[in-house]
DNA sequence: TCTGGGGTCCTAGGACCC
DNA sequence: TCTGGGGTCCTAGGACCC
């Protein structure tokens, strides 16, 4: 059996741990730049606020809701603090790893694990309820757990657990194991609510008269093998209750790619400003590669204009460069990123977003060296170890590239920070350090 | 008239996920 | 005024190999 732990309204729940006054209130967390909604409390969901809703639409939704329900409802909006969420996620995952076997972290707020087949249903339920209770008590984060024969069904089970809890019943755990029970659940599951079936595939399936998960699971196997690609075939088999391929699906434990990208606070036009942003992103990419002990084989840089500004000419492009020798040291990654930017930057356009992606990622010890490359890798590695060590000890970005020093014209306006949570996570130490060193970069 | 058969690797783009 | 950021996997097609 496969279990899935899924944190409830994760970012909002993290904020509530540090500010209990948010409990019971309608709360949303906004993306970078306070652009759109990325997390909603149950109260906010009940108001009809959709995931991804742009921030500027929130006030009209709130006032509309207040009018039609004749009550004055205040919506609390918070700026995202991803460092805090990553820290809380790590705490959740660490506790889980102690409690279950074969934990596979699927996202910042979700993880699959394996349960022994032999356990009795009642015993299984009791254990899972205990787990829900411990996560709430020790970390403060509410979670829902779904248990089923495979991951696709475990996903459905966790949705049911969440729904039951939202409507007042249930204890955060749902066990989906008997064939009759599975058949009943599939009948009430719309085809686009199935994990792995998004808007495009759902539209295709509906064209063929398939509207529910049950209808899909009843299609003849021959039809499925002719009409569906391998991923959709896997989903089909799992809906039919067949065992998944077990965990984990891949034996590669490190990231396949590392991305850092941002939407700028406002439109920027100068190449030097775009270059500074790209330098910062590349620096972070390199740091992350090193913490995972991997190297990048290629670096991609992309830039885009603003899709929403019809009065300006739109331009978007990307460039991928292959490294002579895979690397993770900051100067090399930044150099390739800036070379790539040189290929795609065009004067006369306004830029809204940019990003740096490391791909062809391999482990440091499996690097193929270049015959004509005379770089002293040992020396470079020692340099980066020293830089990482200093930044780890004194705070992020105390020591960085001089090219990246000074004003950051591309950053967003200061976010509406929740100071309690900020202090608790020990953030922003580096800004104090940078000030102290002013004039002597 | 008639033009093989079996591969690998890479890239771009599309679909999905949170 | 105002629309995020970070991932995975699969497939088709091109370029190349013998």
Word description of this protein:
The chain is α+β, with helices and mostly antiparallel strands. It is built from 16 helices and 13 strands. The strands form three sheets. Strands 5-6-1-7-8 form a five-stranded mixed sheet. The N and C termini lie far apart (56 Å). The structure holds a DNA duplex (18 and 18 nucleotides).
Give the overall shape. globular
Helix content: 40-55%
Order of helices and strands: EHEEHHEHEEHEHEHHHHHEHEEHEEHHH
Number of DSSP E strands: 13
Distance between the termini: 56 Å
Count the DSSP helices.
Answer: 16
Largest sheet: 5 strands, mixed
- Round the Cα radius of gyration to an integer and report it: 25 Å
Low-confidence regions: 414-441
Mean pLDDT: 86
Largest sheet strand order: 5-6-1-7-8
- Class by helix and strand content? alpha+beta
| Amount of beta strand | 15-25%
Please outline the helices and strands.
Elements: E1 2-7, H1 10-18, E2 27-30, E3 37-40, H2 42-46, H3 58-69, E4 76-79, H4 82-99, E5 101-107, E6 110-114, H5 121-138, E7 143-148, H6 151-166, E8 173-175, H7 179-187, H8 199-207, H9 213-217, H10 221-227, H11 230-239, E9 258-268, H12 271-291, E10 294-304, E11 316-327, H13 330-344, E12 351-359, E13 362-363, H14 377-394, H15 419-425, H16 429-436
Parallel strand pairs: 2-4, 7-8
Antiparallel strand pairs: 1-6, 1-7, 2-3, 5-6, 9-12, 10-11, 10-12, 10-13
Helix pairs in contact: 12-13
The structure holds a DNA duplex (18 and 18 nucleotides).
